[in-house]
Design a protein that fits this description.
Layout lengths: L1 E8 L3 H7 L3 H7 L3 E6 L4 E10 L2 E15 L3 E9 L5 E12 L5 E12 L7 H23 L4 H38 L1 H11 L13 E4 L4 E4 L3
Antiparallel strand pairs: 1-7, 2-3, 3-4, 4-5, 5-6, 6-7, 8-9
Helix pairs in contact: 2-3, 4-5
Length: about 230
């Protein structure tokens, strides 16, 4: 089977390239990976436990990085033995293209093959599982290489949430001023103050009757005695 996909990573190409050779990063990305260790230059040994349909097996094997063109492309090849479950082997050609100073487009072309009990499960199940695992690997890889992108986004959301009430309060104050001006023209300033304060600016906590509030004409706003 053949798999093709892309993943945009919010990190410089050199950082993405270095992560491809980092066992700690790969361990977090490979689905079901229990251990991964360096076994020499550009070689790793790994133990992975996976479930393919009704078959669950632990694979022990080796991963090799070859065809290196830093920091542009390389090939990851692996083969693992799963005992009575059979074997799995495959390779992925990975290409990294710069998308500006802080973004990288990762493209991969992968091939995979299985034998033993796994091969008896049917091509459709094997194909869908392989696509799912490849998608999980590269999605996790992108999130791990560029985790700082999520933090600013969360911070911006929090700032926006805090700013929203302030904006609403500013709009409400302008409305109250306009109503006060209109009532002032009709009934006088003191009446307008009381109408606006009593009818528009009563705090939400005072509307349920659980406690009272006092009005301040000087500040054109309520003073909640429960605060």
């Amino acid at each position: 089977m053949e798999l093709v996909g892309t993943q945009t990573i919010a990190a410089p190409r050199q950082k993405v390239w270095a992560a491809l050779f980092d066992p700690a990063v790969l361990k977090q990305c490979i689905p079901g990976c229990e251990s991964i260790e360096s076994a020499g230059e550009n070689q790793l040994t790994a133990k992975v436990t996976l479930r393919v349909g009704p078959v669950k097996a632990s694979f022990s094997g080796r991963v090799t990085l070859s065809d290196l063109v830093p920091p542009e492309s390389c090939t990851l090849s692996g083969e693992g033995q799963g005992g009575v479950a059979g074997f799995a082997k495959g390779s992925a050609k990975v290409h990294l293209a710069e998308q500006g100073p802080a973004a990288t487009l990762l493209t991969y072309e992968a091939k995979a093959d299985v034998g033993g009990k796994l091969a008896q499960l049917g091509g459709r199940l094997i194909d869908s599982t392989a696509r799912k695992l490849a998608g999980e690997f590269f999605a996790s890889f992108g999130n791990i290489v560029a985790p700082e992108i999520a933090a600013p986004a969360a911070a911006e959301a929090a700032i926006a949430a805090e700013a929203a009430p302030t904006a609403a309060q500013g709009w409400f104050a302008r409305l109250a001023a306009a109503v006060k001006k209109w009532f002032g023209r009709l009934f006088g300033t003191s009446t307008a103050v009381m109408v606006v304060a009593g009818g528009l600016l009563v705090p939400t906590c005072c509307l349920d009757g659980s406690h009272a509030h006092q009005l301040s004409a000087e500040s054109l706003g309520p003073i909640c005695v429960a605060r």
